[in-house]
Design a protein that fits this description.
This protein is mainly alpha-helical and 346 residues long. The chain has 13 helices and nine strands.
Length: 346
């Protein structure tokens, strides 16, 4: 059984830290050997804790990873799915590093990936301690601590750094920079859902912007996929998007920092939404979502029917859904279409 603080990961993290300070010290063979040792070490933890090895699909991991908390009753599943996800994240990041090196891309690209990997290794060392304490039914005292929250001052200073594009290491605010990607993940999902069906802005009858969150759009997509599945191609399971949105709330509203491999998994899970796609001779950066013309032309009536079925009280008041082209009355809504929705209309 590997030790609680595995020396393989400690050595690997130390090497990555040295490379970050001195790019010229990176040697692909040394890196590959240390990575292999670290991966094998983590695999041993998994095999010792869960002897009945199961293979999980990416969708199965996504369904579990973003809904589980470490609390009484689900500790074993929390450890199981996180360590499995961690191994997959290790593999993806290692592939990125090797590809960057072999393609002779800039040192900045290489260091960015290595720096992220170093953060994941640090999180891993922290995670392994209490995971081992639970799996071995011991009261192991943590010998390595990683702070998993940010305070209001850090959030404020991080926002200034982003605004002025002056990210400075080891000052107040630096600790919050990476986790801020969680907020952008949530925003990316919300904008993608809204824009794919052509919605630009939503105003009430007094011209004020109405906030309609991603959760409401997910209800609309659920309805479309259930009743019009032959007219839409949607590349990510709605249930996984729901869980990622809920998972993001812990950081956005409570300042709790997820494990960095969870953030990597969130990016990986939603990436199909942002892949290029094609239909016939048409290729689009938004083409991963395909909507048939018949569905798109009828989207207003579909939204109307969805609202009638769901009886969503927040939608009861009169407001306008602003598109940018033509007006059509639906219930109490005036709908104008975007010139180009963020989807392929087929």
């Amino acid at each position: 059984m590997p030790t609680i603080i595995p020396k393989e990961l400690v050595i690997f993290k130390s090497y990555l830290s040295d490379v970050i300070k001195n790019t010229n010290s990176f040697k692909i063979q040394t890196y590959s050997n240390l990575y292999a040792d670290s991966y094998k070490c983590m695999r041993l933890f998994y095999e010792n804790w869960f002897p009945k090895i199961r293979q999980y699909s990416d969708a199965q991991i996504g369904e579990q990873l973003f809904k589980l908390e470490f609390r009484v009753g689900n500790e074993k599943d929390f450890v199981r799915y996180n360590i499995y996800a961690l191994l997959k994240s290790f593999d993806r990041i290692n592939t990125n590093i090797v590809d960057i090196y072999n393609s002779n891309r800039s040192n900045s690209d290489l260091i960015a990936e290595i720096s992220f990997f170093e953060k994941i290794i640090w999180d891993t060392l922290y995670f392994i301690q209490f995971a081992n304490a639970y799996m071995s039914k011991s009261s192991t005292r943590l010998s390595l601590y990683v702070r998993k929250y940010i305070d209001s001052k850090e959030s404020y200073e991080a926002s200034l750094m982003l605004l002025k594009q002056t990210i400075i290491q080891n000052v107040v605010g630096d600790y919050a920079i990476r986790p801020l990607s969680v907020f952008l993940i949530r925003q990316a999902i919300e904008l993608r859902l809204k824009n794919a069906i052509g919605i630009d802005t939503i105003l009430d009858n007094k011209g004020r912007t109405v906030k309609i969150g991603a959760e409401h759009f997910l209800h609309i997509y659920k309805y479309i996929i259930k009743y019009h599945s032959d007219e839409i191609e949607f590349p990510v399971k709605i249930s996984i998007l729901e869980k990622i949105l809920e998972w993001s709330q812990y950081f956005i509203h409570a300042g709790l920092i997820p494990y960095f491999w969870q953030i990597e998994w969130a990016h990986y899970s939603i990436s199909p939404l942002f892949e290029w796609g094609s239909h016939g001779n048409t290729r689009s950066a938004y083409g991963s979502i395909k909507i048939k013309q018949s569905l798109y032309d009828n989207i207003q009536n579909i939204i109307k029917e969805h609202l009638r079925r769901k009886k969503v009280n927040k939608f009861k008041r009169i407001f306008r859904i602003l598109f940018r082209n033509r007006d059509q009355e639906i219930l109490n809504y005036t709908i104008r279409e975007l010139p180009q929705p963020e989807s392929l209309i087929t």
